[in-house]
Specification:
This protein is mainly alpha-helical and 143 residues long. It is 90% helix and 0% strand. The model has no long low-confidence stretch (mean pLDDT 92).
Length: 143
């Protein structure tokens, strides 16, 4: 009997490669998300330090401190926006990875099913051959 050959093996390999690529892209986005979260934390720390600093000077010192606090607030808002955008990209990459995994798993199940059918046919052919050999041997003894 001929060897098992899955006709869609090249498609399955491409799907597996696409899944690996999706995993790598998700990993990169997760790293960017961690950096963005660290940026938010650093900006929040700068803002809290700026807000806690006391201004015991002239009016211009107070205005400068207030301008710095406002700049820290804008930096925090920008960092939070970047984090939100990164989280959206992470969610999209997760969705793409799930889809790629589903497509590969579908072909893996199909391959397993076809392999099972092939194995059952091989066993039937082997059983038929053994039965034929047994019948031939039985006829040789009775003749």
């Amino acid at each position: 009997m001929k060897r098992f050959s899955f006709r869609l093996e090249s498609v399955r390999a491409l799907r597996e490669q696409a899944e690996e690529q999706a995993k790598a892209e998700l990993g990169r986005e997760l790293a960017l998300e961690a950096e963005a979260a660290a940026g938010v934390s650093a900006a929040a720390d700068r803002l809290s330090q700026a807000a806690a600093a006391e201004s015991a000077g002239t009016g211009s010192d107070f205005v400068a401190r207030q301008a710095y606090v406002e700049r820290c607030e804008r930096m925090l808002a920008a960092a939070e926006l970047e984090l939100a955008l990164t989280q959206n990209r992470v969610a999209e990459r997760r969705r793409l990875l799930t889809e790629a995994s589903r497509e590969r798993e579908m072909l893996d199940r199909l391959k397993t099913k076809h392999l099972g059918i092939h194995e059952a046919e091989r066993l039937r052919a082997e059983e038929a051959m053994l039965s034929e050999v047994g019948l031939t041997m039985f006829r040789g003894r009775t003749a």
